[in-house]
Amino acid sequence: MSIKDMHFSFRTCECDHRGHAATFPHMRFAIAQSYLNRFADLLKDKISIVVIDYSDNCPCMQMPAPTFRQLRFLVAVTDRRHFGQAARDCLVTQSTLSAGIQELEDLLGVRLLERTRRSVVPTSIGKEIAERARDVLRHVEDLTHAARAAQAPMSGPLMLGVIPTIGPFLVPRVMPRLREAFPRLKLYLKEEQTARLLAQLDTGEIDAVILALPYPVDGVEIAEIGQDRFWVVCPSGHRLVPAGVVGLGDIAAEDLLLLEEGHCMRDHALAACSLEGARRNVAFQGTSLYTLVQMVANGLGVTLLPQMALDAGILNGLSLSALPFEGDMPFRQICLVWRRTAGRNETFRSLAEILEDCLSPAAVRGLHGQQS
Questions:
Q1: Cβ–Cβ < 8 Å for 131, 125
Q2: Measured between alpha carbons, how far is 168 from 175 in angstroms, rounded to an integer?
Q3: Chain-centre distance for alpha carbon 8
Q4: Residue 57: is its pLDDT beyond 50?
Q5: Does residue 250 contact residue 323 with C-beta atoms inside 8 Å?
């Protein structure tokens, strides 16, 4: 047989699978292509045919990939631990969801869920695959958002999380500005405590969060919006009022009313004001800033309130006084955070600029003018 009649057959696939029968040692497609180019240069017109034969025996070429729909079904069941509730979340019938999960288990060759008459629990491998599926779905959603944002940055739906000690005071101020500046943006709000909002941000349930720092945050972009100073609030006839300012030693001797555990402003106020050792009225803890104000009005103690709550008129109609601290005013840092992989930086930075402007001193003076 002459060299002109020879056929060079490379069996290749895109993986590094070993133990694979082939005419030549197993190699990646790019390496095989480089070999072919070298042979073509050496032999020039003496080669009549060169064939690249993708192996049908490689496992990576045989196993079909799970669908996004199947992955959504698995994540929903893992979160809900209930087929009916998961089906409602996915907007399908329970039989459709069950069939999708079964298909996924058959495809992967492992049992993902333990089913009983009363409950459904993910297996160990089911938990691991569900977490990986969650990451896949989040990245796919971020990819979609990035494409939409490139077409029209300030349009479409945006799920914004906000903590309870910010939402009631900032949102009413900022919404008219956002509607005017970005009429095509559909903003949906969700109020929760910081830890829950960050968990939902990580899973892609929400797009961005307005929160207060310091708080441990990782893997997010941060845009600072403004500083929110703390004031001491007490009854107008309280012993602290005549001095006009409050020292740290003064506040340490009072019954300090705080929000209940879980609210980050509780820790912010104590740390910012160096009051970790102050007496606390543990018998009475507020669920909101409005509750704290009513408790102070009833003579149960004093509390700390942020500037934005005072600007929103939280003390209106009450015989209460807001006193500054002596020296530098302690504060919390208000920020907007979002996932680094979200692909909507322009959208979120434009949103942060509006929020920052609404917290500026000029905007606050305009708000006071409207209230008067």
A1: no
A2: 11
A3: 53
A4: yes
A5: no
Calpha distance 99→108 (Å, rounded):
14
Distance CA 295, CA 309 (A): 16
188 and 325 Cβ atoms separated by less than 8 Å: no
Please report where in the chains the tokens 């196993």 appear, as a residue: 63
Tokens representing residue 210 in the block: 């307005």
Name the one residue in this structure whose structure tokens are 């509607």. 179
Q: Which residues pair with 158 in a beta bridge?
A: 187
Distance from C-alpha of 138 to C-alpha of 146, rounded to nearest angstrom: 12
| Phi, then psi, of 221 in degrees rounded to 5 | -85, 145
What are the residues whose beta carbons fall under 8 Å from the beta carbon of 278, sequence distance 6 or more?
Answer: 251, 252, 254, 256, 270
* Mean pLDDT value across residues 181-188: 85
Residue type, 84: G
Residue 12 has a pLDDT of 45
Place of tokens 């845009």: 223
Q: Which helix (H) or strand (E) holds 320?
A: strand 320-323
Is residue 48 within 8 A of residue 72, CB to CB? The reply is no
The pair of structure tokens assigned to 327 is 């020296």
Within 109-235, where are the H helices? 124-151, 167-181, 194-203
pLDDT digit string (tens) for 162-178?
999 999 999 988 888 88
Helix, strand, or coil here: 54? strand
- Of residues 138, 194, 135, the one with CA closest to residue 343: 138
Strand pairing category for 208-213 and 156-162: parallel
- pTM of this prediction exceeds 0.70: no
- Tokens 């970790």 correspond to 276
User: For residues 20 and 58, is the Cβ–Cβ distance under 8 A?
Assistant: yes
